[in-house]
Amino acid sequence: MSKSYGAVRALDSVDFELRRGEVMALLGENGAGKSTLVKLLSGLIQPDSGTIEIAGKEVVLGSPLQSQRHGVAVVQQEYSSVPTMTVAENLLLGDRTAGWWWSRARLDRGTGDVLDRVGLGHVSPRTRVEDLSVAESQLLELARMLRRDAQILILDEPTAALSDHEIERVLAVLRDLANEGRSIIYVTHRLDEVFRLADRVTVFKNGRSLPARDAASLDEHAVVTMMLGREMSTMFPERPELDGAPVRVEATELVAPGLHEPVSVSVRRGEILGVTGQLGSGANALVRALAGVTPAVGGRVAVDGAAVDLRSRRRGIAAGIAYCSDDRKRDGMFQGVSVLRNLSAPWLGRSSRLGVLRPRHERSTGREISGAFAFDASRLSANVETLSGGNQQKVVLGRWVGTDPVLLLVEEPTRGVDVGARAEIYAKLRDLASTGTSIIVASSDSTEILGLCDTIGAFYRGRLTSVRPHTEWDEPQLMAATMHSEATS
C-alpha cells in the first residue's frame, strides 16, 4: 500500500498481514504512517496503489460504510461520539441494523450489557457524552465497537487516557475477543501493553513497514531500537539532589471538588512531584484546583511564601502557575490556528507594545521555544492540527515556557506520544525544573511517575494516602497505594 499527500510520502509500499484470532501491535513514532494505514482500512481515505484482501478476497474500502460491511470496526484516537447526545444514542449511532424506531426504554435496555463489559455499568444510558470524563469517553468508544459483531477490530491508542485498573479491563476484553476468533490491530505507544497483549508486532518507520515479529521474541529495548532506527540510552533523565532546596509552592488543607478530604502538599524549587491514582482518585482534582480550573473552596496556597488567590484560571496565570490539561484537543490547543499563535497565546502581552503585537518578537520567541522542544521551526506558520500527536504535545507544553512559570501543572504529559518524543518531553520537563520551576505531574502511567518524578504522591478515593521520595517506591507498592486505602503517608 502507498499513499502520498502532495510531496509527503505517508505510506511507501507497506505490507501488513493480520491473522485470524491474533492481536497485532502496530508500532512506530508519530508520523511513521500508522494512522494513515488505519484510515485506509476504515475507508476514510483511498490508497494511491496497492490492494487490500479480507479472508482471501480482494476488497475496496471506499467509505466507512463499506469498511463496516466487510467486518471492520475502528476506535480512532480522536473521539467520534456526539457530545450533546446520550450514551445510548451514541452506541446506536451509525448502526444500520438497529432498526428505524427506538423508544427511550428500548434504548436503555439495549445498552446495559455492553456498558458493563467495558466498565461503564455505573453510567446511565441517558447521560450526555459531554458530561463524561476523558476516560469514560474512551471506554464508550470501545463499547460502540463491541456492540457490532465486527471481525477485524482496530484500536488507535485505546488506553491513553485510562488508569491502570481500566487498562486491565480493556486488555482483558480484547484478549477475550481475540480468543473468539476476532482479529485485532492494536496501535499504542505504551510498550508494556504490547508484551501483555500482542501475539505479533509490526513496526512502521518513515512510511515503511518492517517484517512482523513474534512479540515473545522481543523485549522493550529491541522494539524501541526498531522504532527509532538507533539505540536510545535512556528514557528518563537523571534526577538531581534536592536536599536543602527551599519549598516554593505549598498547599495547606486544600478543599476542592473531587477531593474527599483536605489535601496538603509542598513542592520544592526545581522538584518534580508526581501524583497518581485511579480515575476519580483525586490526583487530577488536586492539579485542577491548583490551576484554578476547578477553584478550591477552602485551604491556603502560597508561592514563595506569599498567599495566592486561585479562584479562577486567570488568577492562577497571574500568580505564575501554568497548566496543561490531559486533553490537548479539547482545551489544550486552539485548533485551526497556526503553531506560532498557539505557542504565543499565553505570552502575547510580552510580544506587544501599547497593545500592538510585534510579529518579529513573537516569531523570534517561537523559534527559541521550537529549538528547546525539538520541533521544526519552519512549521510555525502551519496549522497546529497538521502536526503529529507528539509535536502537538510539545506545542502545548512549550507555550508556557515563554511565561517563565513558577509552577507547571501537567496532566498526562505523554498521552498518545511515541517513545522518542516521550524521552524529549521528559528531558525538557527536567530542564525546566533545573531552572527553578516547580512541577507537578498527574499521570496514570506508573512507569512515567516512577521514572520521572522526585517525589510521588498516591491518591485513593479522593484522599492523598501517601507521599514519599521516589527511592521509597516501586511499582507493586505504587499500585497497592492507588488501589487500597490502607496505604499510609
Major beta sheet summary: 7 strands, mixed
Uncertain runs are: 485-489
Beta-strand percentage range: 15-25%
Shape: globular
Rounded to an integer in angstroms, the radius of gyration calculated over CA atoms is 23 Å
Distance between the termini: 55 Å
The SS-based structural class is alpha/beta
By DSSP, the count of extended strands is 23
- The amount of helix comes to 25-40%
The residue-averaged pLDDT reads 86
Helix run count: 18
Features:
489 residues; 7-stranded mixed sheet; 6-stranded mixed sheet; disordered C terminus
Task: Give a short synopsis of this structure.
By secondary structure, the protein is an alpha/beta fold. It contains 18 helices and 23 strands. The C terminus is likely disordered.
Describe the fold and architecture.
33% of the residues lie in helices and 21% in strands. The strands form 6 sheets. Strands 3, 6, 7, 8, 9, 10 and 11 form a 7-stranded mixed beta sheet that branches. A hairpin with a 2-residue loop joins strand 22 and strand 23 (463-469). The chain starts with a strand and ends in a 6-residue tail after the last helix. Residues 485-489 have low confidence and may be disordered.
How are the secondary structure elements laid out?
Blueprint: E1 3-5, E2 8-11, E3 23-27, H1 34-41, E4 52-54, E5 57-59, H2 64-69, E6 72-75, H3 87-92, H4 104-109, H5 112-117, H6 134-147, E7 152-156, H7 164-179, E8 183-187, H8 191-197, E9 200-205, E10 208-209, E11 213-214, H9 220-228, E12 247-255, E13 263-268, E14 272-276, H10 283-291, E15 298-303, E16 306-307, H11 313-318, E17 321-324, H12 328-331, H13 339-344, E18 352-353, E19 356-357, H14 359-372, H15 389-398, E20 407-411, H16 419-434, E21 438-442, H17 446-452, E22 455-460, E23 463-469, H18 475-483
Parallel strand pairs: 3-8, 3-9, 6-7, 7-8, 14-21, 14-22, 17-20, 20-21
Antiparallel strand pairs: 1-2, 4-5, 9-10, 9-11, 12-13, 12-15, 15-16, 18-19, 22-23
